[in-house]
Fold:
Amino acid sequence: MNGGWSIAKKLLGFERTMIAESFSNATNSRDATDWSTSRARTSVRRGPLADPLIRDRITQLKLDQSCLDLTLRRTQDSAKAGQAPGAESSILKYYGTELNKRRNELFLSVLGPQAVGWEGDGFERRELELTREWLRSRANSIEGGTSEIQLNIIAKRVLGLPD
Structure:
C-alpha cells in the first residue's frame, strides 16, 4: 500500500509541475502582456504609461514571470537527471496559477469595460479572448489541487510547520 502512495505522490508532483509549466513564459502570455501594455499606452497617449501603478504592476509581473521560468528550468533539469518532483511542485503550481490570475486581472485593469465582453461588434477579437482567459484563470487555482491545499503542503512538507 505504501508503494502505491509513493507512486501517487510522484504522479501528483508531475501533474502540478506540468500545470505550472503551462504558465511559463509561453508566447501567449508574453503576447498578451505586450498587447495589454501597448493598449494601455494608446488608450491615453503614445509614449510611457501615464499610470505609475500600472507600470509597476506590469514590471512586477514580468519579474515574477522570469522567476517562474528560471525555477521551472531548474526543475526540468532535475527531471532530466532522473529526479521526480517533490514538494516543490506545489510551490510551482501555486505560484504559476496565482501569477496567471494576476496577469489576467492586470488585463482587466488596463482594458476596463472592454475586458468583460462575451460577444458582439463592440469588442475586438483579442478582448473577447482575454475575457475567456480571465474566467479560465480562476479554475487554474482549483485543478491539480486547490491553492489552499498547495499552501498546506508547502507549510508542512517544505517549511516543516506543525499541523
Notes: The chain has a mean pLDDT of 78. DSSP finds six helices and no strands in the chain. The first helix runs from residue 2 to 21. Residues 34 and 122 are 22 Å apart (CA to CA).
